Amino acid sequence: MEHHTLTYKIASELEEMEQIYQLNYETFVEEIPQHQQNQRRRLIDKFDRENTYIIAKDEEEVVGMIAVCANRPFSLDHKLENLDDYLPKHATPCEVRLLSVKKAYRKSMVFYQLVDLLVSYCLEKNYNMALISGTDRQIKLYKRIGFESFGPMVGTEGAMYQPMYLTKEKFATTSRAFTKMMLKKKKPTKQINFLPGPVAINKEVERAFKNTAISHRSKAFIDEMKTVQSKLCELVNAQNTQIVVGTGTLANDLVAAQMKKLPGKGLIIANGEFGYRLIDHAERLGLHYVKLEKQWNEKVTIKELECYLKTDREISWIWTVHCETSTGYLYDLDKISRFAIDYDVKLCVDACSSVGVVPVNLQNVYLASTVSGKGLGAYPGLGIVFHQEPIVPSNDIPRYLDLGQYTKTDSVPYTHSSNLILALSEAVKRVSLEGKQTLAKDVRSMLTEGGFDYLGMEDYSPGIITLPLPSVVSSRTIGDRLKENGVIVSYESDYLLKRNWIQFALMGDHSLAEFAEALAILKQIINSKVAFV
């Protein structure tokens, strides 16, 4: 029986303590006959003033607890003579007692979560050994966790216990074991998607997508296509747009195919994975160009651009990403577009990760690409190309890459998807640039407070938050563990694994509460040391 509202904490409220005493009575008087019954049905442990109680709560109800104490004498001191003679030298022990979980919750994650928090607490307090009196009913479980038996059994008939200890050397192993056990047992009831695509989808967008498919040749579809084209152009201040069945890669190939017709040569800017992919597009289509290459995440200045154009008068176009998805680096599109006007060159932009996330003004941009399944918050499957000037078909370009074919037929030269178009139309209505900016600001504050570093400041895209992890932590393991806990982040791309980075993309339908939940899980995984290398 797993509840969505379970929380785990150190007891601090009077009401929590009262419930602990009642749970103590239910377990160690009524279930395990260790103490005498009383009319008040409450049992206060004789070490209560020394105990720290770690508890599980279902809303306001305490449903599980475990106590830890570091002050001598321990309970075991009264049960075993010369307790220290049984312990390794240089032991700094604490005693763990009173493990109790209400019956209705014993097949849930409560036990594992309590012990996981206990291990983290002991590590934080620098205890190098944990002592327990393990009930004879659960000896195998305790040994599986890493506890070792010592000394004779203690207790009374019906309530026998085996003294056991867990050393600091096994704490890290125990932490990993518990994390693995919890992740294996836990089946997340929902997933929180922080991918840059496919993104988390709003319910209304999902509902629009589920409409019955209609013919791409029908008047209803053509009308809907024109409506969403108009909305997109209004969003980015563009003259024209074509929507194709495909991805951002296809949209960039469409752009490249048009640029091949331009005179002179181009300048391609790259300071991350997707800038270098533009270079690859250019290579494959045989574009004539030079490149301005920088190290990943290294700033590109207008002066550097100006130097290229002053020394090479053949440059007639510039191609750059707007948001470098691999880092979150955001180019100053307004400055670059003004610069392009001054030097009379055509500006082409990969805006796949910026449209719908930050203000984008394409008034002075010759060609630009974006996609349905990122910042616009719709499903993947539609590539979008904006263009200033009318474009006519060209027999020199393969049919599917000929932007003129789409212009000629109102973006429907071939089979299209009414489901994707309806979802995109609904998603565009819901774009909130201010909301994404506010969310990103709050997310960065939470990360800073939590001791996490991230790339860039508020001049970076609010849609991509990149976390460089310390070398002692494996980004792959962190990503895997987050996924197993229902939190989906970007980490599996080769360029992220190579740099030991993970990314939280805030491009879809997200709330700050979802990020807070994800961050708490991330902290738990790191504190458990399961991802340490």
Automatic annotation (TrEMBL):
Keywords: Pyridoxal phosphate. The keyword Zinc-finger does not apply. The keyword Iron does not apply. It comes from the Bacteria. One of its GO terms (molecular function) is acyltransferase activity, transferring groups other than amino-acyl groups. It holds the Pfam family Aminotran_5. One of its GO terms (biological process) is glycine biosynthetic process, by transamination of glyoxylate. Residues 6-165 form the N-acetyltransferase domain. Its cofactor is pyridoxal 5'-phosphate. This is 2-aminoethylphosphonate--pyruvate transaminase. It comes from Oceanobacillus picturae. The gene is phnW.
